[in-house]
């Protein structure tokens, strides 16, 4: 309206200017007679008429524009109202995101499983399955499956373990890519996907002992039944997402976050005196460059971080169980918190995975901006059709019965989980059922105040005790080693060996027999284990005669110090010996006892 008034004012001024010009023209041409006056009068008349016509056209255009804006706002409001409270688009987003998590998980498996779990891996899965069989004392499939649920029981894992590990990973990766591309899935497909990953987790031993593996299984199981029974359409007609499953996602993120908050205030007093963040960035399993910078923050900022953490994990989770608007605020808080954690450290795909159940806090109206008009129109159409339908198809009845039964099952399995949350002896990252359908979670219940690392060395010297012996250092993919190497950025990817090396530094090698096996593989110049590390000093050289591991204390080099100016990210100091000097022959008795053997065909020959 303001623009319209300005345009009218301008047009009136133009008309006045035209009248003045005509008047001056008549006065200055007195010799022109009546003919000139008549011409001037006509010019004046038609000029005013033309400007009046322009004014009318302008008013019509402004009116049309105003109507279009009003219609656009009306359509947007109608669209929002039509999608209010429904979860068609939410389901598409969740299925795609779950597919992304599976993609990362299976890529990690493809690149590392053979070296970690294969026939000649650090902890061979076939040896583990044989031990389970001996422990159960039965060859019945049911007894074996209930003890260690995995498809490997049904194949020749003794002779073709590596092949079947790859088959499982490639099949799972293919299904995951389908989920990402289409945003669709059904019960049989996603249940099979869940079984595939279960098959890896249950033979993964220490390599798959992290809390996020159970979280993948629980989240993947929920995603299975968020989808239709048989249709592979991303927006299947007459099959809206179950509100029970949507609430189960919210219940999951509630348990994850509240469990993490409670384990902190019960586990380490630094969470109560607000000092935990003084240590966290430096001592977390696999820091990244941002961890280095965040560690340099002033103490008051670290205290503020702890307070924010307590709010997000102890108060904000209750927002997730409250209706729409507050629930969306709670979901947004959790997503933002996970993004901050992703930026500040390499915690595998844990934080990426934790974002997923938070998406269930948003309905279609709040997520519609992420989708094309075609997809939104289809979701609106389905909503309208369901509103008009008076009869429920048979598949809908079956789904409803199943969803109610599923809700009862989740409620029943949640009883020990809730009791654990309320207990002063709270356990984190624990499963109370063999299928890991409802689990307890938690992270960083206690904070490590000092960072220690296990550093491996090898030498070709004949006398390892001689001061002249030259010890050369092995470098891992991501864990700290060389003090001048920049901390890596790998999230959401994950190096399982690097992560367990962090845990091994808190214990002795006697608690980690796989670490002794790693030393034996270094002594054999094993090519498979070489793919798990960043640098083998004996690559394309004779294998080392001796290997040892020492314990080092690591701290970040402060910005502005001489070490930092010389390019050092870390400062380190040797503490003590971790693994004494060993040779392949000295480890042979243990290797025979464990059923391990180095890859003899891959060992570089030493010149004599």
UniProtKB/TrEMBL annotation:
<dbReference type="GO" id="GO:0051604">
    <property type="term" value="P:protein maturation"/>
</dbReference>
<feature type="transmembrane region" description="Helical">
    <location>
        <begin position="88"/>
        <end position="108"/>
    </location>
</feature>
<feature type="compositionally biased region" description="Basic and acidic residues">
    <location>
        <begin position="53"/>
        <end position="67"/>
    </location>
</feature>
<keyword id="KW-1133">Transmembrane helix</keyword>
<dbReference type="InterPro" id="IPR057433">
    <property type="entry name" value="LMF1/2_C"/>
</dbReference>
<feature type="domain" description="Lipase maturation factor 1/2 C-terminal">
    <location>
        <begin position="437"/>
        <end position="580"/>
    </location>
</feature>
<keyword id="KW-0812">Transmembrane</keyword>
<feature type="transmembrane region" description="Helical">
    <location>
        <begin position="335"/>
        <end position="360"/>
    </location>
</feature>
<dbReference type="InterPro" id="IPR009613">
    <property type="entry name" value="LMF"/>
</dbReference>
<keyword id="KW-0472">Membrane</keyword>
<feature type="compositionally biased region" description="Basic and acidic residues">
    <location>
        <begin position="1"/>
        <end position="11"/>
    </location>
</feature>
<feature type="compositionally biased region" description="Polar residues">
    <location>
        <begin position="23"/>
        <end position="40"/>
    </location>
</feature>
<feature type="domain" description="Lipase maturation factor 1/2 N-terminal">
    <location>
        <begin position="209"/>
        <end position="368"/>
    </location>
</feature>
<comment type="similarity">
    <text>Belongs to the lipase maturation factor family.</text>
</comment>
<feature type="transmembrane region" description="Helical">
    <location>
        <begin position="167"/>
        <end position="196"/>
    </location>
</feature>
<dbReference type="GO" id="GO:0005789">
    <property type="term" value="C:endoplasmic reticulum membrane"/>
</dbReference>
<dbReference type="InterPro" id="IPR057434">
    <property type="entry name" value="LMF1/2_N"/>
</dbReference>
<dbReference type="Pfam" id="PF06762">
    <property type="entry name" value="LMF1"/>
</dbReference>
<dbReference type="Pfam" id="PF25179">
    <property type="entry name" value="LMF1_C"/>
</dbReference>
<feature type="region of interest" description="Disordered">
    <location>
        <begin position="1"/>
        <end position="78"/>
    </location>
</feature>
<protein>
    <recommendedName>
        <fullName>Lipase maturation factor</fullName>
    </recommendedName>
</protein>
<keyword id="KW-0256">Endoplasmic reticulum</keyword>
<feature type="transmembrane region" description="Helical">
    <location>
        <begin position="401"/>
        <end position="422"/>
    </location>
</feature>
<comment type="function">
    <text>Involved in the maturation of specific proteins in the endoplasmic reticulum.</text>
</comment>
């Amino acid at each position: 309206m303001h623009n319209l008034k300005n345009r009218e004012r301008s047009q009136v001024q133009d008309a006045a200017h035209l009248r003045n010009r005509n008047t001056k023209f008549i006065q200055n041409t007195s010799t022109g007679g009546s003919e000139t006056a008549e011409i001037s009068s006509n010019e004046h008349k038609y000029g005013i008429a033309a400007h009046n016509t322009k004014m009318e056209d302008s008013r019509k255009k402004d009116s049309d524009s105003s109507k279009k804006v009003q219609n656009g706002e009306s359509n947007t409001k109608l669209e929002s109202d039509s999608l209010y409270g429904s979860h068609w688009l939410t389901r598409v987003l969740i299925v795609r995101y779950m597919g992304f998590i599976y993609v990362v998980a299976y890529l990690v498996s493809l690149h590392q499983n053979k070296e970690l779990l294969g026939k000649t891996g650090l902890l061979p899965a076939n040896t583990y399955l044989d031990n389970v069989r001996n422990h159960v004392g039965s060859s019945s499939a049911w007894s074996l499956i209930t003890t260690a649920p995995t498809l490997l029981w049904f194949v020749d894992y003794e002779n073709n373990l590596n092949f079947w590990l790859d088959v499982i990973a490639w099949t799972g990766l293919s299904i995951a890519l389908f989920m990402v591309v289409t945003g669709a899935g059904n019960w049989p497909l996603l249940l099979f996907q869940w079984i595939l990953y279960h098959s890896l987790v249950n033979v993964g031993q220490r390599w798959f002992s992290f809390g996020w593996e159970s979280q993948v299984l629980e989240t993947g199981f929920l995603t299975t039944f968020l989808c239709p029974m048989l249709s592979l359409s991303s927006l299947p007609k007459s099959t809206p997402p179950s509100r029970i499953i949507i609430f189960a996602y919210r219940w999951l993120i509630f348990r994850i976050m509240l469990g993490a908050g409670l384990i902190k205030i019960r586990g380490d007093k630094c969470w109560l005196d607000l000092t935990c963040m003084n240590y966290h960035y430096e001592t977390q399993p696999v820091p990244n460059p941002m961890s280095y910078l965040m560690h340099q923050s002033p103490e008051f900022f670290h205290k503020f971080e702890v307070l924010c953490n307590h709010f997000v994990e102890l108060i904000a989770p209750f927002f997730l169980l409250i209706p729409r608007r507050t629930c969306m605020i709670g979901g947004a808080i959790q997503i933002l918190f996970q993004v901050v954690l992703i930026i500040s450290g390499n915690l595998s795909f844990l934080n990426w995975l934790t974002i997923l159940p938070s998406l269930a806090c948003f309905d279609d109206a709040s997520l519609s901006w992420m989708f094309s008009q075609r997809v939104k129109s289809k979701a609106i159409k389905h909503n309208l059709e369901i509103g008009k339908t008076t009869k429920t198809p048979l598949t809908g009845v079956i789904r409803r019965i199943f969803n109610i039964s599923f809700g009862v099952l989740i409620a029943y399995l949640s009883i020990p989980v809730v009791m654990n949350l309320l207990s002063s002896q709270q356990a984190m990252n624990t499963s109370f059922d063999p299928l890991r359908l409802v689990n307890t979670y938690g992270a960083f219940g206690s904070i490590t105040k000092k960072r220690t690392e296990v550093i491996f060395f090898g030498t070709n010297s004949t006398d390892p005790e001689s001061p002249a012996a030259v010890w050369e250092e092995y470098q891992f993919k991501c864990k700290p080693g060389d003090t001048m190497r920049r901390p890596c950025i790998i999230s959401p990817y994950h190096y399982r060996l690097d992560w367990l090396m962090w845990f091994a530094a808190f214990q002795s090698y006697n608690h980690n027999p796989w670490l002794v096996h790693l030393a034996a593989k270094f002594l054999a110049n094993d090519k498979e284990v070489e793919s798990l590390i960043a640098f083998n000093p004996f690559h394309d050289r004779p294998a080392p005669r001796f290997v040892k591991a020492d314990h080092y204390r690591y701290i970040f080099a402060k910005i502005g110090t001489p070490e930092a100016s010389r390019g050092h990210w870390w400062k380190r100091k040797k503490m003590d010996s971790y693994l004494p000097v060993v040779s392949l022959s000295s480890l042979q008795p243990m290797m025979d006892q464990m059923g391990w053997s180095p890859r003899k065909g891959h060992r570089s020959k030493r010149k004599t």
